[in-house]
Design brief:
The protein is of the alpha+beta class. It has 15 helices and 16 strands. α12 links the parallel β12 and β13.
Amino acid sequence: MTINALRGTYDICPPASYIWEYVEQEARRLFGQFGYGEIRTPIFEETRLFTRSIGENTDIVSKEMYTFADRKGRSITLRPEATAPVVRAFLQHKLYSVSPLNKFFYIGPMFRYERPQAGRNRQFYQLGTEILGSNHPYYDAESIALAHQFLCVIGINNPTVKINSVGDLESKKLFGKMIQTKLMPQQSLLCADCQTRLEKNPLRVLDCKNPSCKEYIKDLPRLTDNLSPASKEHFAQVLRFLDSMNIPYVIDNCLVRGLDYYTETIFEIVHSNLGSQDALGGGGRYNNLVEEMEGPSTGAVGFAFGIDRLVMVLEQLRPELATDRQQLDCYILNLEPSVFTEHVALVHKLRKTGIRADICTEEKSMKAQFRAANKLNARFVVIRGKEEIEKNIFSIKNMNEANEEKISYTDENTLFEILRERIIKL
RNA sequence: GUGGGUGUAGCUCAGUAGGUUAGAGCGUCUGGUUGUGGCCCAGAAGGUCGACGGUUCAAAUCCGUUCACUCACCCCA
């Protein structure tokens, strides 16, 4: 009985892993350029960190958390998202007193117990940012600009940025109540999902795709018309900054996010090359979360990409990323056991000077060894067989030009030097 | 949690009016005269046909159960 990876988890083997490396490498470079420092938090936390921050009756907390008791009976949860852990770290280390503004990025696995489907796994990977310490609308726009530029950098060129505002905590609550009172009389006419949404999370009714529900939704007041003057101005400024940076976006009055802590600006980036789960990433502002977690009043905004989904799109758009383009500089054949040890020293010496060298360990036929060299995409092959040893020479074959050079052998070191010279010359 | 689809070689898949030793392409390995790769040619290895049970003289094929994968709903990255 073989053991397989658990449902919703998977292995990333070469050459597919090259895409992941590429995405992460470009993220580190660009996010660093924008002034974000990497933060790494633990993969598991106390359960109440998430129940408190994300919200008791959100889907994530009510049915998707990997929660278990540790050996001392404490309730532990594998992180379903990174914002709460980052805020926890921010407070634990009192980073607000180290610097008024903190910009972080993170890369790592998250866990949600869901039925897997295209673009959704139980262990999935996010790469995201958090800016803590300001409620200036510029930072909402910067988050979106960074996300947008990152996609451009890695070659995902036509994403759609959807944006909306839910206003401050007060207007968010008031608007929810408004929807409830307007729709309650017709509750029984809505779809089953909307009936429960209306009670648990009324804003969600807005993005129901059910055609019959849409009839009722279109007559509802609009979120953006019911914002407080301050929230309205905040949102207008975010849009103004986006315009000034030429970041394209679509205002989507029905966009709602599933986590309780979002306030003001929320956004989502979708892409048509994905399946039904078409969001590459999303985020928004969360001005009350830090305070709710017993920290000082702190404006904050963040977003996250699903790396799994970025990779899915890149597999389609840039399949060349998943090929091993690296050439081997030098492959040393194994024809005479008497010189094998000398060759072990040679490979090591070459590698120490930064050359990509490798050695054949099996005493196979010359044809087989050349086939191996070819598969490894070797530029040079070192040949020391019976003939060379008798004549006291060694041969270097250039695989690209298919010509061979025979050089007289004096000692190990000159062999190394001559080989190195040939390799570096190219 | 709910619903649909699919399980045959390492990969992509053929293979039903149930009937001999279950196939192809790619990949892997070995050869194609004495020591040379890619192209070409030849050959080999590799499968308890997802698992279990049933019908039948006979099951990859029909029936039942189960597991896995997959897509979608809910929701999210």
